[in-house]
Known about the structure:
With 318 residues, the protein is of the alpha/beta class. It has helices at 17-28, 63-76, 124-128, 138-141, 157-166, 186-194, 295-315; strands at 7-13, 34-36, 50-51, 61-62, 80-82, 88-90, 96-100, 103-112, 116-118, 134-135, 149-153, 172-176, 198-201, 204-210, 219-224, 230-233, 237-240, 244-246, 265-266, 270-273, 276-283. The protein is built from seven helices and 21 strands. The strands form five sheets. Strands 1, 2, 5, 6, 7, 8, 19, 20 and 21 form a nine-stranded mixed sheet that branches. Strand 20 (270-273) and strand 21 (276-283) form a beta hairpin. The chain is elongated, with a radius of gyration of 21 Å.
Amino acid sequence: MPTPNEVRDTVILGSGCSGLTAAIYAARSNLKPLVLEGHEPGGQLAITTLVENFPGWPEGIQGPELIENMKKQAVRFGAELRMAHLTRVDLATQPFSLGIGKETIHTRSLIIASGASARWLGLPSEQALIGFGVSSCATCDGFFASGKEIAVIGGGDSAMEEALFLTRFATKVTLIHRSDHFRASHIMLERAMAHPKIELLRNTVVEEALGVEEKELKGIHLLNKKTGQRWTLPVSFMFLGIGHTPNARAFHGQLDLDAEGYIQTQDNVFVTLQGQRIAGVYACGDVQDRRYRQAITAAGTGCMAALEVERYLEEQGR
Ligand code: NDP
């Protein structure tokens, strides 16, 4: 616990792959980083099952176990982890102030690794089946859909990309979109529509995911909003491709965000305000990456952010 007048060398917001990688590097530089774990401790990996594309795990590793290992590694070198999330932030004056409820923490540098949260439909049955046939990450879980009939929800580029990617594994992909207007780029939509394994359902919404008791997705109840027709589609997997929300709202007005709310960065991790870099503040992982969104890329930018903190503090004579 920091004492009231203490100024930390660095605070890391978020305990997903990027935040914990930053913590490992900062801790190994003896900066005793404080990691505020945030609303979703462990980030998106904590709600994934088997991760097969993180280098070094030839047989794969469960997402929660990978995160737990990273936490242990960070703590072993002196990182302090706290179950808390940011309620206020002031980046206008040094040291920066961070509010956690009534408490204020002062820090010379800040690494923002608050991630992005996948959007879900919000059905209780969907939430109960996450990891048991319901997923928001085709790259992570697509392999498990091998030989199965599956559904992909969404009408943007993510849904098209997921549907096309999943045709490598699934025998049939039903792409379900709630309207007949698509946000997806023309080329992606055409590609998806032309694929022999993909069937497109428009104006259709998922009303329920089936299989909660069995802990295994058995199918989805659908409603065609135009015709009023209801039916059950027997699928073993449902992938959500309805977008992500970057967890950057607290920085609105203090940092440059793009139209979707992602933190804009220069050279991967340098944040800006009106185009000018803010010394001592860095962003890494999915809160600033709308393109790759992979565990390994989050780890990579987490490492970069910590190295920049080290450089910055050294320049300040710390
Ligand atoms: P988008 O916001 O573009 O699309 C989200 C889609 O999900 C929309 O079709 C939306 O429907 C639907 N949706 C949202 N909420 C719900 C809900 N509750 N129930 C049902 N459907 C819902 O997000 P994407 O992730 O697809 O794309 C984000 C950005 O990333 C875009 O700029 C995209 O171009 C880019 N991207 C680029 C890729 C590439 O170039 N290869 C790959 C992936 C993304 P509605 O339209 O009715 O609101």
